[in-house]
Each structure stands twice: as structure tokens, then as C-alpha cells.
Design goal:
This protein is of the alpha/beta class. Helix content is 13%, strand content 32%. The chain has a domain of 134 residues: Rossmann fold (3-Layer(aba) Sandwich). A hairpin with a 6-residue loop joins strand 2 and strand 3. Helix 2 packs across helix 3. It binds zinc ion (ZN). Zinc ion binds next to loops.
């Protein structure tokens, strides 16, 4: 993973998050190939191996039983439209959505993280690859879009994932999961729903 992408990563343990500290064993210019990122708060260390940062093993089966329903020539455009992507934002694409990370990143000039991708995803300064046990290891409010596939995220996992979204950020998840409380559903088809994170409530003061 490229160093500038590591900056946005946070520990997935249940404590207030601060920047992780990277230890680099092998690198190619700005790309860290082997190393660790450590949490200064709880002292957990997450390995970087072959450029991929592991916050957990992720699904063991790679969802092999699922059909390749997301192998779609227009997949990058589709997920880009779902997430209303614009230049300069950061998004996370989980499971099979991950394969579209490089194409979406190139399409509009954004940063895309592929999480537990079902196939090899080529890293770049705009594309990072990581594995995680159904947690999004990102700074709170730092993502403008998250797309989750059908790779076993429970309602609680989806609800927990919204912390990484900025207000107004988009979340796509399978219809088999509940729409979290802080997400307003804006569209739904047979497979996915699309929602937007509600903004913080503003207190109105009367004079
Ligand atoms: Zn920690």
C-alpha cells in the first residue's frame, strides 16, 4: 500500500482512533510491500504483506458459492453511479465490488480501497488493498462512499461501518441487510439498497 493511503487507516478496536504508526521492512519508493502498522493506543499490530494490509483474515471462502453476478463490463460505472462519485473523494469497495477499484479511481480521479477483494487488485497511489473482518479501518467520517457486497456482513457490521462515512456519504449494501438508523434509504432494487448518511442534527437557537 502507498504511504499516503496508509495515513487514512485506523485501528478497528473499540477505542478513540489516532494515526497508526508504520514500520517498513520492504518498500518500492512510496509503496510499502512488507511491514506493519501499529496502533499506539492498544498496541495491536497489523501486518502488511505483499502490499496488502491485514486487519483480519476476511472471509475464508472468498464467497465461492456466490455467482459472479458482479462481473459486469459496466460495473465500475454502476458502482460509481450508486456512490455518486466525484473527483478527489475516498471510497471503500468491499468483496466483489473491490475489482472495480482501479477503474473507478481512474474514471474520476478518486482514492478507492478494495477490501477483501475476490481477485487480485493492482495497487497504485489511488488504490489500496486490505483485508478485514467486516470492519472498515478508516478515520471516522473520511469516506464519501462504501459499497458492500453479499460476502457475509451482518446487520451489525453494516451499522458499524457507517462511522467511516461523512455526512451525505453514500452506502450500498445487499437487500438482505437492514438499513442502519443513521442512513436514509434513497433507492432500492432486487439486489441492493442505496442510502445516504444523515447529517448531524443542528440545534436551532431562537433569539
Ligand atoms: Zn487500537
Amino acid at each position: 500500500m502507498f504511504i499516503e493511503l496508509i495515513d487514512g487507516l485506523r485501528c478497528t478496536a473499540d477505542h478513540p482512533s489516532i494515526c497508526l504508526v508504520a514500520a517498513i521492512f520492504e518498500r518500492e519508493e512510496r509503496r510499502v510491500i512488507e511491514g506493519t502498522v501499529g496502533c499506539p493506543t492498544c498496541k495491536l499490530e497489523y501486518p502488511i504483506h505483499g502490499g496488502v494490509v491485514s486487519f483480519g483474515a476476511g472471509p475464508q471462502t472468498g464467497s465461492a458459492t456466490e455467482s459472479d453476478d458482479l462481473l459486469d463490463p459496466d460495473g465500475a460505472l454502476r458502482v460509481g453511479a450508486f456512490l455518486a462519485v466525484t473527483e478527489g473523494i475516498t471510497i471503500a469497495l468491499v468483496g466483489k465490488w473491490g475489482r472495480y477499484a482501479p477503474a473507478v479511481a481512474d474514471l474520476v480521479g478518486l482514492r478507492a480501497f478494495a477490501i477483501n477483494p475476490s481477485e487480485t487488485v493492482i495497487e497504485s497511489e489511488r488504490v489500496g488493498v486490505l483485508r478485514s473482518d467486516n470492519r472498515l479501518p478508516f478515520k471516522a467520517g473520511s469516506l464519501r462512499g462504501v459499497a458492500i457486497d453479499g460476502s457475509g456482513w451482518l446487520d451489525a457490521d453494516v451499522a458499524q461501518s457507517t462511522h467511516a462515512l461523512a455526512a451525505g456519504g453514500r452506502l450500498v449494501a445487499p437487500v438482505s441487510t437492514a438499513v442502519p438508523e443513521d442512513i436514509e434509504e434513497i433507492a432500492r432494487d432486487d439486489t441492493y439498497w442505496v442510502g445516504e448518511k444523515r447529517g448531524a442534527l443542528v440545534t436551532l437557537h431562537r433569539r
